[in-house]
Amino acid sequence: MKKIKNLVGQERGKNSRWIQTHVNFFYRLMAVVSILGLLFFVFSRAILGDDSPIQDGGVGAKTVQQLGGGTVTIVQRQVNPKSGYGELLFSVNQPTDNADVKFDAVVVDVNLRKKIPSQIERITDQYYVLHIEGIRSNWRQIGISYGLVTKSSPLVNYDYEQDVNSDQPSTLKDSSSVDQHDYTMDYRRVKPDDTAEKSSHEIYVKKYVALEISDTKKAIQSVKKGQSDARQLIQKYASYVDDLSAQEGTATPYDLLKIKDSIKATEQKIDGLKKTIDSGDKAIKSYQQILKKLYEQQRKER
């Protein structure tokens, strides 16, 4: 009997040790899994990429906004993550009859909800550069509010309180704002440029002239393409008129009326296309005069 009890005790001890060992292993395993899960949660964006919504205004035609009596376009943008410097080039097509109104902007780190030092530099009546200093190397989104303000009451404040409860990246708080627009840059849409730096006023003037030359050339090419398309349509319509005219001799009186109406309508289209070509010639001549002045200015800047 004693032997049986001893054997039962030994078996129970073995089972107890086995259970304790596996319970400890289970807890260790769960701890490791929990730590790995936490690490994956923290570094998942670095591993899988940032899947948060992209809010980026882009550059060029998509950024055109009505501003006062004209328009504003963001032509270029650069961010140097190493130095923390960034800049945006604005094209402001705005009447200058009000000397008390100027173009201004406010910049903020959207994620930190913190204002970033910035300054607007006027290059010409049409071009302005926004200099941004102190962009953090791991920035995510930069918000910019730009608009027209009165010189007597310049914009200097950023409305943090309103931004806390708003999806807008930034806002111009001062009531002196005549007109205002918001713009966002996302780090996933802005190619880092380690060479970007603040340049002299003369360099920006040269850049402005080069951009104007490029845009004017593109405008000329666009007009010429429109003229080429119009000429092709004229040939097509003229051939169609010839085909209709050939049917007049054998057409019934009813069909003859329909043919004449079609010929008249098609000839009106041809006349409209010819006017488009003539207007294009005038536009090209005007653009060529602008190019001539730009080339002269470019030579002076060298």
| Percent of residues in beta strands | 15-25%
| Whole-number tally of structural domains | 3
What is the CATH topology of the largest domain?
A: Immunoglobulin-like
Radius of gyration: 35 Å
Biggest β-sheet strands, sense, barrel: 5 strands, antiparallel
- Count of alpha/pi helices: 4
**N-to-C terminal Cα separation, in Å?**
113 Å
Q: Could you say what the CATH architecture of the largest domain is?
A: Sandwich
Overall helicity: 40-55%
Regarding CATH, which class of the largest domain?
Mainly Beta
Succession of helices and strands: HEEEEEEEEHEHH
Number-wise, the strands total 9
Structural class: alpha+beta
Global geometry: extended
Strand order, biggest sheet? 1-2-3-7-6
Q: Give unreliable regions as ranges.
A: 156-171
The overall pLDDT, averaged over residues, is 82
Task: Set down the secondary structure blueprint.
Blueprint: H1 2-48, E1 65-67, E2 70-80, E3 85-93, E4 101-109, E5 114-116, E6 118-122, E7 127-132, E8 141-150, H2 160-164, E9 177-186, H3 201-246, H4 253-301
Antiparallel strand pairs: 1-2, 2-3, 3-7, 4-5, 4-8, 6-7, 8-9
Helix pairs in contact: 3-4
What does it look like?
The chain has 3 domains: 11-49; 60-198, Immunoglobulin-like, CATH 2.60.40; 207-301. Helix content is 49%, strand content 22%. It is extended, with a radius of gyration of 35 Å. It starts with a helix and ends with a helix. It has helices at 2-48, 160-164, 201-246, 253-301; strands at 65-67, 70-80, 85-93, 101-109, 114-116, 118-122, 127-132, 141-150, 177-186. It has 302 residues and is α+β, with helices and mostly antiparallel strands. The strands form 2 sheets. A 5-stranded antiparallel β-sheet has the order 1-2-3-7-6, with no helix packed on it. It has a 4-stranded antiparallel β-sheet with strand order 5-4-8-9, with no helix packed on it. Mean pLDDT is 82; it is low at 156-171. It is built from 4 helices and 9 strands; from the N terminus they run αββββββββαβαα.
